Amino acid sequence: MINLVGTDATRFFDCSMYFHFLWEAPIEFLSGLYLIYSIIGFLPALCGYLLFIFVILVQIICSRTLSEYHDNIAKCADKRIQVLSEMTNAFHIVKMNNWEDLAEKRVNSMREHEFSTIRKTYLIRALNMGLFVAATLSISLATIGYIWLTNGSVVSIDIFTAISFYGVIRTPVASYMPIAIEKTLHLRMTVKRIDELLQQSEQQTLEPSNADQYQ
Fold first, then answer.
1. Which domains does the chain have, with CATH numbers?
2. Taking the chain (215 residues) in consecutive chunks of 10 residues, what is each chunk's mean pLDDT?
3. Considering only CA atoms, which of 74, 82, 75 is closest in space to residue 11?
């Protein structure tokens, strides 16, 4: 309950900030393709856009992986809070049996597992950010490289205009849309967790304290 109120409830607000990019980004993506095609031709534009699509697919995969990691983090946090609550309620038993070290090891083990998942999450976020930063340069090199390899003729003003269009569509397509997908998946898991909580019986039989779990 504490984790749902403190963390999961804020995901409704987070999702509302980015949800509209799920339909806005594809429209900008297709509009940009048409504009770049009208400037430098179909094949050079297609070459750059194929690389763009690859970047988007990688970021979508990263977003789904991040969503799974966030779900694991939430479950670890729920379990850790539950264990700490049990320890607090049965603190006199822990002290009486001299289980402080065992209880500390158990909490530290759970926390280390949680930290490990958090570290993986930030590594994937770093990969996403790296792809976002390198997207425009890589796509521009692919477009110019195709024109050079095919001995195509294009003036510099068209190249710079096309690169500018790539830069314009990069932010909504390569940054905000993966974030929107990630936030939407987070929200779906949050709704599932809240639904599971609400479907639980209001009067549950309290389980006896598992004092032997520290032995």
1. 21-186 (1.20.1560.10)
2. 61 80 86 85 84 84 81 79 77 74 80 85 85 81 83 78 83 81 79 74 47 46
3. 74
